């Protein structure tokens, strides 16, 4: 299928095993080997996922124009930077000085539209997200070139969050706070309440829409760009998708595990379910619950699933 416009792919990547990066992180946070979800080892561990995600991208989405890898003064040792279709983007190029050093993915994501030469239509992925089958531009951008917004059905999500906070008196994770903040921002401005949960996988965006939202909600978003670590006032990137839906510039699509599958790597039995579902996309999510044995299994699984080197490797 011939695409009608250029589409780029953006990754965020960090090698938490790098001693220089680890020293900077620990000096800034004052904490080593945190077990907190927002700053645990699993959030920064490099299990070579990016190498295999690029193999999957070349195999299943060869129509992608260019790939940008957003990093903090790092480059994968195996990456062939002479390949004109791939470019390392350092945090200093896109994140305001007051936000550096940045260990907050939600801040990084608000700055992606600043990437030089980024196409109007682009995909965004964490390094642990993968294409699992052949995909086409229409899988991400449909009528009028507007992005598909993939959500999981959760009609009771808003009520459950309210009950957790107000009846059970249990605090939300900073990630869920950021989602809630995005929801409230859009509700106040458009009178529309979106409580569905993001599918946490490869997403589609328009650069102009990102810039539009950043300008529209400048007073709410810009102050959070100095949050070096996740903060309670962060606004999750789903705000771009919610505004697109509210303004009729996006298409809502509900997905199940047959399309988008997230596997927490410490749950080994889920690998079998992943094979059975054979989704379009999958995510191998590291966390504070994962062990080194779990991370070894990730590498073994990915090497078996994507054994052939891509043109992005030396």
Topology record:
Layout: E1 7-12, H1 19-29, H2 41-44, H3 49-60, E2 67-71, E3 86-90, H4 91-94, H5 105-110, E4 121-126, E5 129-131, E6 148-152, H6 157-166, H7 174-190, E7 197-198, E8 203-206, H8 207-216, H9 218-221, H10 238-246, E9 251-254, E10 260-264, H11 270-277, E11 281-285, H12 292-305
Parallel strand pairs: 1-2, 1-4, 2-3, 6-9, 10-11
Antiparallel strand pairs: 4-8, 5-11, 6-7
Give a brief rundown of this model.
By secondary structure, the chain is an alpha/beta fold. The chain has helices spanning 19-29, 41-44, 49-60, 91-94, 105-110, 157-166, 174-190, 207-216, 218-221, 238-246, 270-277, 292-305; strands at residues 7-12, 67-71, 86-90, 121-126, 129-131, 148-152, 197-198, 203-206, 251-254, 260-264, 281-285.
Q: Class of the domain at 7-145 and 200-230 and 261-305, according to the CATH hierarchy?
A: Alpha Beta
Write down the overall mean pLDDT: 90
| Number of DSSP-assigned strands | 11
Per CATH, the architecture of the domain at 7-145 and 200-230 and 261-305 is Alpha-Beta Complex
User: What is the number of helical segments per DSSP (H or I, 4+ residues)?
Assistant: 12
Q: Helix fraction?
A: 25-40%
Give Rg in angstroms: 19 Å
Strand order of the largest sheet: 3-2-1-4-8
What is the 3D shape? globular
Beta-strand share of residues:
15-25%
What structural class do the secondary elements suggest? alpha/beta
Looking at CATH, which topology of the domain at 7-145 and 200-230 and 261-305 would you report?
Spore Coat Polysaccharide Biosynthesis Protein SpsA, Chain A
Could you list the spans in which at least 5 consecutive residues all have pLDDT below 50? none
């Amino acid at each position: 299928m011939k695409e009608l416009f250029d589409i780029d792919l953006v990754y965020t990547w960090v090698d938490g095993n790098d001693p220089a990066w680890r020293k900077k992180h620990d000096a800034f946070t004052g904490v080593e080997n945190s077990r907190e979800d927002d700053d645990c080892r699993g959030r920064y561990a490099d299990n070579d996922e990016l190498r295999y995600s690029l193999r999957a991208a070349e195999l299943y989405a060869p129509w992608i124009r260019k790939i940008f890898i957003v990093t903090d003064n790092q480059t994968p040792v195996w990456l062939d930077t002479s390949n004109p279709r791939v470019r390392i983007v350092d945090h200093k190029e896109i994140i305001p000085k007051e936000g550096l050093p940045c260990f907050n993915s939600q801040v990084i994501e608000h700055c992606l539209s600043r990437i030089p030469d980024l196409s109007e239509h682009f995909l965004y992925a964490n390094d642990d997200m993968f294409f699992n089958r052949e995909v086409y531009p229409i899988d991400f951008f449909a009528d009028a070139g507007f992005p598909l917004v993939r959500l999981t059905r959760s009609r009771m999500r808003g009520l459950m969050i309210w009950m957790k906070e107000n009846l059970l008196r249990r605090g939300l994770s900073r990630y869920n706070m950021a989602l809630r903040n995005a929801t409230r921002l859009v509700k106040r401005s458009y009178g529309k309440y979106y409580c569905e949960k993001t599918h946490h996988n490869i997403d589609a965006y328009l650069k102009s829409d990102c810039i539009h939202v950043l300008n529209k909600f400048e007073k709410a978003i810009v102050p959070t760009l100095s949050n070096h670590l996740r903060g309670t006032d962060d606004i999750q990137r789903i705000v771009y998708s919610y505004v697109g839906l509210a303004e009729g510039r996006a298409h809502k699509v509900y997905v199940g595990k047959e399309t988008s599958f997230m596997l927490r790597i410490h749950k080994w039995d889920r690998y079998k379910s992943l094979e059975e579902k054979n989704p379009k996309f999958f995510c191998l999510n590291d966390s504070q619950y994962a062990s080194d044995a779990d991370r070894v299994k990730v590498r073994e699984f990915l090497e078996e699933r994507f054994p052939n080197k891509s043109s992005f490797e030396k």
